[in-house]
Design a protein that fits this description.
The protein has three helices and ten strands; from the N terminus they run H-H-E-E-E-E-E-E-H-E-E-E-E. The protein is of the alpha+beta class and 279 residues long.
Length: 279
């Protein structure tokens, strides 16, 4: 009997210790030891390796492994490289443009067409997101949806605004133009849309550096991803707060970034482009 009691005491003690460890782990950042500068290097190496070993098959509208001396994505003139600084780390974003896009005439002025979206405009897109793993993007998409509105300018979940995407979209989509809306008493239909691929290092996608205690673990944290995108349309000169001034022009300090301008001392945490009291 004494042996049984001793065993029970040990089991209860072990359970208490385990529970305490779990409580302690709940207050620890599981990504505290990630070296994000080293991760940027390895992410870029993975993307470059893929670009060197694959080509764009225009007949199938897909990316294929080079097997007969085809022109690599890396050496294709349709590939653009964008330098982006985020969280004090310099990243390279790669955008492969298969179709630049040909917008139709503007409704208010048929002599003009819409241009490329700015980093503050709203966009109407089709998208498919895939992880880049072991030099392969043939896995099932983690995200796929058609005809959805997004705001390249951050909206912080405020009512009445489209959701905001990852940093890579903000920097990558301005390389495309939308298409022409040819809807005629039927489903929304576009032609001559902008199409391509955005190759994204983890720091411009879903970086764990932004993890907050109590937040759920995102399986996409610190993953290299690729978005196949189609830009259908844009809201040119998007005015998020409907104050008559395009959000891209609500740039009080003139640095080209309206997201860091907070002029209202009564509402110091709301950027000017979301504040109708500031024009």
């Amino acid at each position: 009997m004494n042996k049984i009691k001793s065993v029970l005491v040990l089991v209860i003690f072990a359970v208490i210790i385990y529970a305490c460890d779990n409580d302690r782990n709940a207050f620890l950042n599981p990504y505290a030891d990630v070296n994000y500068e080293s991760l940027e290097i390895s992410d870029n190496d993975s993307i470059v390796k893929f670009l060197e070993s694959h080509y764009y098959d225009s007949n199938l509208d897909s990316l294929k492994l080079i097997d007969a001396g085809q022109l690599s994505l890396l050496n294709d003139v349709r590939l653009e490289t964008i330098d982006v600084e985020e969280n004090d780390i310099n990243y390279k974003l790669y955008v492969f443009v298969t179709e630049i896009g040909m917008p139709g005439p503007k409704k208010d002025d048929p002599t003009k067409v819409k241009g490329n979206p700015t980093e503050m405009d709203s966009i109407f897109v089709n998208r498919k997101g895939i992880t880049l793993t072991n030099n392969n993007i043939n896995s099932d998409p983690f995200d796929e949806s058609n005809q959805t509105w997004w705001s390249l300018g951050r909206t912080f979940g405020l009512p009445g605004n489209a959701p905001s995407p990852i940093v890579a979209w903000v920097k990558g989509f301005p390389k495309f133009k939308g298409g022409e809306n040819i809807t005629n008493n039927g489903p929304i239909t576009y032609q001559n849309t902008g199409k391509g691929y955005i190759f994204i290092p983890s720091g411009l996608a879903y970086p764990s550096i932004n993890f907050q205690l109590g937040q759920s673990i995102n399986p996409l944290f610190d993953q290299v991803i690729v978005f196949q995108i189609e830009l259908l349309d844009i809201v040119e000169d998007t005015d998020h707060d409907n104050d008559g001034v395009a959000s891209i022009n609500e740039d009080a300090d003139g640095d080209g970034d309206p997201t860091n301008d907070f002029s209202d001392t009564n509402n110091p945490n709301l950027p000017d482009y979301l504040n109708s009291n500031i024009k």
